[in-house]
Amino acid sequence: MTETQSSSFHLLDERIQRFIWAEGWESLRDAQEAAIPLILPGERDVIVAAATAAGKTEAAFLPALTHLLQREVPGLIVYISPLKALINDQFGRLERLCEQLEVPVWPWHGDISSSSKTRFLSKRQGVLLITPESLEALLCNRGTAVSAVFGEAAFFVVDELHAFIGSERGKQLQSLMHRIDVAIGRKVPRIGLSATLGDMGMAADFLRPGAGERVAVVESKSSGAELKVLVKGYEEPAVVQSDDGKEDSEPSTPGLIAAHLFKVLRGSNNLVFPNSRREVERYTHLLNEMCLKQQVPNEFWPHHGSLSKEIRSETEAALKQKEQPASAICTNTLELGIDIGAVKSVVQIGPPPLVASLRQRLGRSGRRKGEPAILRGYCIEDALDPRSSLDSLLRLGTVQMAAMISLLLQKWFEPPRSQGAHLSTLVQQVLSAVAQRGGSTIGQLYSLLCAPGTPFQGLAKDEFAQLVKHLGAKELLTQDSSGLLLHGRVGEKFVNHYSFYAAFAADEEFRIVSSGRMLGTLPVSQMLTQGQRILFAGKTWLVENVDEPQKTIFVVRARGGVPPLFSGGAGRVHTRVRQEMRRLLESSEPLPFLDDVAQRFVAEGRQHYADRGLSTECVVDLGRELLLLTWLGDAANEAIAALLIRRGFVANLAGPGVEVRKDGHTAEEVLDALGDAAVDEPPPLDVLLQDAKNLQREKWDWALPDDLLRKTYASLNLDLDEALDWARISALRA
Q: Of 44, 50, 169, 604, which sits most exposed with the smallest number of CB within 10 A?
């Protein structure tokens, strides 16, 4: 590479230039060429968006390190990652280069020794690699030293930016960076790195709240690898007979899928994504058994958040070593950018949670020059019989998978719900700021966290005062005679426990209990109401009560009626996905990425859709229930259900629509009620969600006053505008 080939290469420090030569780079990537002159002066915020393995890390660090080397006073780059494993990877990548530059690199997370952390605190220069949780702990426990530790901070580098936007951790991260800015009295330039960003304006607003228009954006134009897709369909028999002739409650298709995976994946590295931890365990067990039976070395390893660090590390090590092939059966724990080497294919069993997840997962495959990215999909549908649900008749699982792949090929994926209030995280940040400062006034806290340009801007002063008063009632805060807010008896216990530093709660499932007997657990991603029907273990149940503190749903068997479409929390679906599903059902276009069985499923779904006249009919009579077929996303459907509940109906989310119990009501009465809702003044959230249970989703939701809990839940989970638009249109049609 010569200077004439690159306009940015000569801007880098000579030692970095020599390192690039020694590594045998033929040229800088386009993202690196564009990012270097923007980042190097250390004066502005920059987002670098490029495909996985397109050199984003180097696009940030080559100019940031050059800037550090040009400073008169030693400086600090703070690299923030969502994963400890990613920090360990980056440490390995950066240490070799930084050793030659005589720039120290400091990994900092729960597994790093206290002596290493003490050495960093004495030097406070180089590159600090840290998670948001460890940064939180640093601010809480060393509050008086924050300005000294970060006084010479030159950059915040936020990796996997998309993983933070619209989440509790994202709001926490915004708050932490802002609190450091306030402590040192200046704004530290921020660099965001991501492979999966749709709306650059939203990403820029997230990186620098209130000043997103001033963030420079670098988007790599280099095209990704060729993509090869094949989706196989499997039909689950209506009744499975075991060897002794009795009905078998275990499905047979996972065994068939595992056998196919065993055949096509052996001998190469792959990632397999079922949609739950339970399914990860199921497929890992099936594949391990096949290896034992065939007397071949095991190539299949589990990876999910409930496994111990040692087991996850074994899986990561198996993927990284080159002597033996290995495939991981995993949840989204391997979705982000841990360096696990080249992956031949990505397997998705059932529709993914999001199109964005599918895109992120596929970024793992096809990273070697000339190799395609390969997606293998598997869809399971129940065999049709006279009792089949509308879900089965329309083959919605396969149609959703096809719609998501279609949108992926159109380069669309879900924007995050960036407008979420995340008041749970505000509770944590109030307690953390009090710890950092050794006490604070209510005015100081509001100015720090909720004023314009801060992470929680938009919360009114009276609402914040109400929150602080409620935290006092919960003994999380107390006020001394001078008006200074301090930790209360309960608050002190929480803040002094290591679990405080995480803004998010560990994934929790609700226990399902019937007549005192626990039936199992279920992840729940929507509000529940008494009288609602849910599907669990292949049977239909009526919700009697929801005990939120104990995370328990009390149910009784429902008699008669078709099974409900709600069967748990597999991820919240966006309206664009449902609209694409509807388009595919109304279309006759071939879907070449489906095998013959999956093609048959789609043909059956299209036929039933046409036979029922669903292109013009929005109400389906299910016997004891009516289904409003909206083809909207879960956020709008849940808002429609809430509007109907407010008017005395029993309604709940049901796949591409809303299920309403008749109780003597006609379809016209239901639509009339929605029509009234569409012309009335939109109800206050306090009223709209008055009868809703299980609204506590985030870690500190239990500490919120009821009206603020409803406000934060609605901001994250309801789309009232979209719901009312649909209600208006439906009322006009009726």
A: 44
Q: Assess contact for 555 and 544: CB atoms under 8 A.
A: yes
Tokens of 492: 């002190």
Indicate the pLDDT class of residue 564, thresholds 50, 70 and 90.
Answer: low
My answer on whether 43 and 134 are in the same domain is: yes
Bridge partner list, 539: 536
pTM passes above 0.90: no
What domain range includes position 203? 3-219
Do 289 and 351 reside in the same domain of the chain?
yes
Residue with tokens 């008041």: 423
Is residue 213 domain-shared with residue 243, that is, in the same domain? no
Q: Are 546 and 693 in contact (CB under 8 A)?
A: yes
CATH code at 247?
Answer: 3.40.50.300
Instruction: Taking residues 707-719, report their average pLDDT.
Output: 92
Is residue 594 within 8 A of residue 233, CB to CB? The reply is yes
CATH number at 479 reads 1.10.10.10
Model confidence band, residue 339 (pLDDT cutoffs 50, 70, 90): low
CB neighbour burial string for 510-519, b if at least 16 within 10 angstroms, e if fewer: bbbbbeeeeb
pLDDT digits (tens, 9 = 90+) for 254-283: 999 999 999 999 999 999 999 887 788 889
Within 13 Å, how many C-alpha atoms sit on residue 68's CB side?
A: 29
What is the rounded average pLDDT of the residues 224-230? 84
Please provide the average confidence, as pLDDT, over all residues in the chain.
88
Q: Which of 382, 409, 436 is the last residue of a domain?
A: 409
Query: DSSP letter at 704?
Result: S
Residue pLDDT, tens place only, 636-681: 999 999 999 989 899 988 899 999 999 989 988 998 999 898 888 8
Q: In the beta sheet, which residues pair with residue 155?
A: 77
Written as six digits, the tokens of 565 are 């479409």
Distance CA 59, CA 16 (A): 13
CA dihedral (117, 123, 129, 130) positive or negative: positive
Beta-ladder partners of 517: 514
